[in-house]
Specification:
39% of the residues lie in helices and 23% in strands. It has 211 residues and is an alpha+beta fold. The chain folds into two domains: 75 residues, Orthogonal Bundle (Arc Repressor Mutant, subunit A), CATH 1.10.10.10; 129 residues, Elongation Factor Tu (Ef-tu), domain 3. The strands form two sheets. Strands 1-2-8-7-6-9 form a six-stranded antiparallel barrel. Strands 4-5 form a two-stranded antiparallel ribbon. Strand 4 and strand 5 form a beta hairpin.
């Protein structure tokens, strides 16, 4: 499939724009015949890039192809990272609970490479940086999958590796949160308030890795 990857990518980019539509409507929106689209869908489904069903839905393998292409484009255009500015704020005390959950902690160790301190550093973003927070919401990031413990269901969390004061950390974009969009939560292998002598209201810069 390696030689055909550019062709697969082209189809997936086109399908991303019509995801959720039935094939008949998707074909019309794309300006191609139904027969041509059905033929392409059969091949993509057989390869695991598109899911079976009455509507266009890109499978996880297809999403990985799109993510790989996005990373390549971002690297080409020099968009490997951004800097967020804000100030330290007191949290709601929920970070310690969630980070300590086995379902999250194990994935953080596997995907981010460190055991998180049981708590988060809350950073309120400046108006200029808030624009980039919305940008992060649109990027794939590193998925920390949600799970159920039999009593309660916990949502997905998207993470981006970052640095705060030279310390390797991760910024979390949380699917379910009580915070507004101006607040980001940072996890690290240490308590950042102690390691960097931070207090409420102190300015802080977060160097976020996008690739």
């Amino acid at each position: 499939m390696a030689r055909r990857r550019p062709v697969v990518l082209g189809y997936l980019i086109a399908l991303a724009g019509v995801e959720g539509l039935p094939p008949s409507e998707a074909a019309k929106a794309l300006g191609i015949s139904r027969q041509g689209l059905h033929k392409a869908l059969r091949r993509l489904r057989a390869a695991g890039y598109v899911e079976e069903g009455p509507y266009i839905k890109i499978a996880e393998a297809g999403r990985e192809v799109l993510k790989e292409a996005l990373r390549s484009l971002m690297a080409y255009f020099g968009m490997s990272g951004i800097r967020l500015e804000g100030y330290v704020a007191r949290g709601l005390g929920e970070g310690a609970f969630y980070v300590s959950l086995e379902g999250y902690r194990r994935q953080i160790e596997e995907k981010l490479g460190f055991t998180p301190y049981p708590g988060t550093l809350n950073v309120v973003l400046t108006a200029d940086s808030l624009i980039y927070r919305r940008y992060l919401e649109a990027l794939p990031g590193i998925l920390i999958k949600g799970f159920s413990d039999g009593v309660r269901t916990y949502g997905n969390v998207k993470a981006f590796k970052c640095k705060v004061g030279g310390i390797d950390c991760a910024l979390l974009v949380i699917e379910r949160t009580h915070h507004g969009p101006e607040v980001v939560e940072i996890i690290a292998p240490v308590r950042l308030r102690d390691a960097l002598a931070l207090n409420d209201g102190d300015p802080v810069s977060v160097e976020v890795q996008l690739l």
